[in-house]
Write a structure and sequence with these properties.
The complex is a heterodimer of chains A (313) and B (502). Chain A starts with a helix and ends in a 6-residue tail after the last helix. Chain A is mainly α. In chain A, 77% of the residues lie in helices and 0% in strands. Chain A contains 15 helices and no strands. The radius of gyration of chain A is 24 Å and the shape is globular. With 502 residues, chain B is α+β, with helices and mostly antiparallel strands. In chain B, strands 1, 8, 9, 10, 11, 12, 13, 14, 15, 16, 17 and 18 form a 12-stranded mixed sheet that branches. The two termini of chain B are 46 Å apart. Classes of the chains: A mainly alpha (313), B alpha+beta (502). Chain B: Keywords: Signal. Chain B: This is ABC transporter substrate-binding protein. Chain B: It is found in: Periplasm.
Chain lengths: 313, 502
Amino acid sequence: MRSYLLRRLIGMIVVIFLVLTIAFVLVRLAPGDPASLMLGPDASPEEVAALRVRLGLDQPIIAQFGSFLANALRGDLGQSLFFNQPVTTVLASRAEPTIVLALFSLLVALVIATPIGIWAAYRRGSVLDQTSITTAMLAASVPSFLTGLVFQRYLATDLGWFPASGYGGAGAGFTERMRHLILPAITLGITNSALILRFTRASMLDILGEDYVRTARAKGMTERRVVLRHALKNAGIPIITVVGLTFALLVSGAVVTERVFNLPGMGNLVVNAVLRRDYPVIQGTLIVVAALYVLVNLITDLLYLAVDKRVKY
Amino acid sequence: MKFRATCLAGAAAVALCAAGPLAAQGNVDVAIIGDADTFDPMISTKDVVSIVTQHFLETLYTFDENWQVVPLLAADMPTISEDGTTYTIPLREGVSFHDGSTMDSADVAASLSRWKDVASRGMAIADQIGSIEATAPSEITITLTEPYAPLVTLLAFSNSAAVIYPEEIIAPEIKEPIGTGPYKLEAYQPDQYTQLVRFDDYTQPGEAAGERAQTPDEIRFIPVPDTNTRVEGLLSGQFDYADSLSTEAFARIEGSDVAEPVLLDAFGWPLFAVNHKKGLMTDLNIRRAVQAALPYDDMLFAAFGDEKFFQTDGALYPEGWPWHTEAATELYNINDPEKAAEYLAEAGYDGQPLRILTSRQYEFHYQMAEVAQMALEMAGFTVQLDVVDWATLAQNRDNPDLWDIYITHSPFLPEPTLTSSLFGTAREGWVNPDKEEVLERFTRETDLDARKAIYAELQEQVYGDVGMIKIGNFSAVQGKSRKLSGVVPSPWPAFWNAAKAE
């Protein structure tokens, strides 16, 4: 077990390094100059050149990369070109909305998908099964930005039930901030519930056809016990896998939803950073996202141990 | 059982949250297109920087509602020597900075020296500034090497602004600006808000600049990059004011009980910036062919959709401005492909692609480009439309090897010489001895009527030599809460007099 964890840790470092190197080179090869954007349309080329020197952008890429790596090893991801703040501070300020949104929307997705997925598998071919499959396809097909726009217009603007956008503004308390996450969480939850529903249904269908399920029924167990204790537990591994990946996707990929609802999360941050060519923030976000993916995969693998005693590392 | 209890608690929490108030009173929440990426307006020419920083940083002069220069931190208009080279500026006394210190001539001289060194508009005239001296505790003297009439206008402009800082914080880079404005910077959360609070020791400027009543307790600028999100926030009552809205949203906002549209009639002008340094457009006949081929009215219609939002107007300043003149506008909106083809033949055009650089950052740029491409191709041009993201455009336009025309726009600025495209030093590189002579006379002349006459000559140069191509006038749409008053529509709206009805 210890050697397994060590191997995974080394793998994690290699993945992060590779992601970082590729990202570092790609963002610098892409056209676009942060200095021009910062100074505005009427800045002279001399001003732009002077700012590039001040930001260190005039250095060769290799020198910039070496300097970045040396600092990163000390936990310093550099200074945001636009925010005048350390990248770590910028990223930390985005963690709360993104992680809480991911958890909220995962909760919404699980509450919708798990019971329906189990029931649809249990009543295979029934009206509920057919309806759930169709609805899941519909939910997966409608892009989250469209769902978000519809919710924003009717539930926020017209009915006034929820705030239309933002994260509460200056001095907003925890409750106020969470209130701003309800609509985005429902939007993302609905979109992501489709995948979890289909995985749950498929996995349960496999398990419900197994011999030991038939044996459990033959032993006179109640259907509720058969489904929830025997079948669901064994269907858990694929469900845990998809839930883990969905969580990682939600943390790193809620770009569109964060944009529609103007949430100051990681998705919005990275979009703005790319548009502004804020290289240190792009790099910092990619490191965090890569680390998160690897970590979620590791946690998912470790959860298999809890769910299935046959799994050994 | 536990699950049901959790669900009920969750539902109760959602209901409780949904029932809460949407906005606190005493604050004005303004949705802007993005963060001000610096709070030092000397080093930026971005409008969003001007909108935010004008509330806490002030200049010696400002503009009244008719775009006339009036004193702000200066006590009066400058005394100008007969030869037009010495400006003596009296300063208001007892003006406090946000750090508690009192403004004096040393602060002003140090700030203006920095402006000359780091601001693009200051650097542009640095060669003409001989000295900036504190000649008395409440007086500074600017000595020029040659007359330069737009100086006071430059000192009033909020973009690349000659703001006044305490001498102690003057440095090449100012991270925490301290000013004299009616509000001071309280907090900044990137991508969330910039919070300004009332400055209690603010001293009101003279009558000409108008009262800055400090009505709101706080002004919060909220960056909302997505236009639709700004509209929804305005209509839901979340924002009291929203900048830069799409013309498509106008009717919906007009029909709302919560908000109303603010139309800035003839706000600005889209233009095709011409590369005079390299490539096809260095040939006058090619430039004339483009000028003759473009269907200006169709381009404006494609871009803005409704005549409420644009005017087909060739004058570089619309009616109502002192600089308005119809000189040479017969060359505007010719829309004659055959005439264009004649110019192409005279140029010996061989089909080399005409590269139009644009982006979809501003959708109307792209829409104009599409119509222009069709019209130019009908006239015989081969057109290469280079559509890139804004960051790439901002970089590529500084490289004259990469474009022939790039599309941009500007609000109508209070002084024509603030339009950088007129100068040979700009990225377009428009140099022509006749134009230079007119421009020199224009910048030296101090009499307004004489300047108007020279400006007509300058407009003739713009059309005759096709220095740049104005497409027309467009109106901008902003939006405000129906409860909000005290905000004068402007490209750079100010909120110190904003009041909300209960």
